Amino acid sequence: MQTINNTEVNDSMDHFPTLVELPVVLHSLNLNGANGCNREKQERCQIHAKNDYEAIQCWLNEYRHKATTYRTYQKEAERLLLWAIYQSKKPLSGLDRDDFEAYLSFLDSPEPRNVWCTRSHGGGRKRGEPGWRPFVSGLSFSAKQVAISCIDSLLNYLVDARYLAFNPLSLMRKRNLSRFSRPRSILLQERMLELEEWYAMLDTLEELPEKEYSHKKEKERLRFLINILYFLGLRNAELTTHTWSSFRKIDNDWWFYVIGKGDKEGIIPVCDDMLRAIIHYRTFLKKSPFPNQNETEPLITSLVNNEPITPRQINKILKKLAHETAKKFEGNAEKITKLKKFSAHWLRHLSASMQDRAGIKFKHIRANHRHESDETTRRYVHAIDKERHHDMQKLKLKMT
C-alpha cells in the first residue's frame, strides 16, 4: 500500500488520507496553503484560518445546520483538495485558472481510473477504509453542475473572507464554463418522464410482491413515497427533514407546511387524492387516519425502526423501482438508459409538468413548487407551447 505522504498517483495507491489525516498530510507535503500564491495578506483575513484546511472548515461551518448541503459541500471540497494534492501537487490556495479548467475536465473521467474510482460501485467501502475512492465514475452533466456550484461557492466565500485574493473560476468566461455542463433546458428534458414511462412505473409499483408482511411493508412505504413526492412536489431533502406534524387542517382544508431551500417557508395544498394516500398509509401503520400537530415522527422511516432515512436512501429506493420499470421497455435502449438515470428529483419535475397538464393555473404551480421566478416554472409547463404551436399554423407561404 502506498503511503499517504507520497503524492505520486499510480496503480499501487490504495489509501487516500481520511479527513482527520488531511491536515497532517497537507503540512508534511508543504501543501497546506499557508503561503499559497493566491493568498490574501493574513492580517486582512476575516476568518480564523491560517491554512486551506482550516479555511474550508470555516466555510463548511456556515452550513452545519443544513445536513444535506453540508455533506454535498464537504464531498466536493474534499475531492478538489485530494486532486490538488495528488494530481496538481499544489495547495488549494495556489490553484490558478488553468488548474481549475484541468480539474473540471478531470471530473469527466478521473484518471487513473483504478486509483480515483471505486472498483465496484461502492463495493461497501466506507470513508477511511482501504480501497475507498473519491469517485464511482466520471460525473454526469448534472453532477458536474453541482460540483461547479459548490466550488464556486467555496471560492467566493474565501475571497469575501479575505483569505483568497481572487476566485480563479471567475476568470473563466461563461461560454467556456458552459462547456462543462449542458444547458438547463436540455437537462430538464432528459429528466422529464413521458406519460408512458410514468404509467409503467406506477404499474411496476402495483406489481411488486406483497404476500410476505416485509414485502407489503416495503411496498406501502414506496407507494406513499411516490404519492407525496408527486402530489406535493417536494425536494428529496425536504421530505427527510419534515414530520407528520407538517400536515395541518385549516378551515377544513389540508395543507403541508414546509421549510425549504434557503430556509424559506411555504404551504402546499393537499388534494383529495393525497389525503387518501395519507389515510391509507397511516391506517397500514396502525396510526389514526389523520395526522396532528403533535406528531414528531418522520414521514418516511426505516423498515426496521422509526428512524428517518436519508435522501440518498430515498434515491436508492426509487432507483430500484425505476430499474424494474426499465424491464418493461425491453429492446428500447433509449428508455432503458433514461430510466436508469432516474432520481427522486425527477418526481418534482413531473409534479409541475402534470399540474400544468391538469389545467392548474401557472401562478399556483409556481406557488406549489416555491419557485423564485416565473422563468423557473416555465421550464416545467408546456400548455403555452401547445398554444404557440397552434398559433403558428396561421402562417402560410402565401398570405391571403
TrEMBL record:
Principal location class: cytoplasm
Keyword Cell division set for record: yes
InterPro entries in alphabetical order: CB, DNA_brk_join_enz, Integrase-like_cat_sf, Integrase_catalytic, Integrase_recombinase_N, Tyrosine_recombinase_XerCD
Gene Ontology BP, a term: DNA recombination
Gene Ontology terms: cellular component: cytoplasm
Coiled-coil positions: none
Residue ranges annotated for the Tyr recombinase domain, each copy included: 188-394
MF terms in GO: DNA binding
Core-binding (CB) domain sequence ranges: 50-159
Protein name (Swiss-Prot/TrEMBL): Site-specific recombinase XerD
Alphabetized UniProt keyword annotations: Cell cycle, Cell division, Chromosome partition, Cytoplasm, DNA integration, DNA recombination, DNA-binding
Record flagged with keyword DNA-binding: yes
PROSITE patterns listed in its UniProt record: CB (PS51900), TYR_RECOMBINASE (PS51898)
Subcellular location: Cytoplasm
TM ranges: none
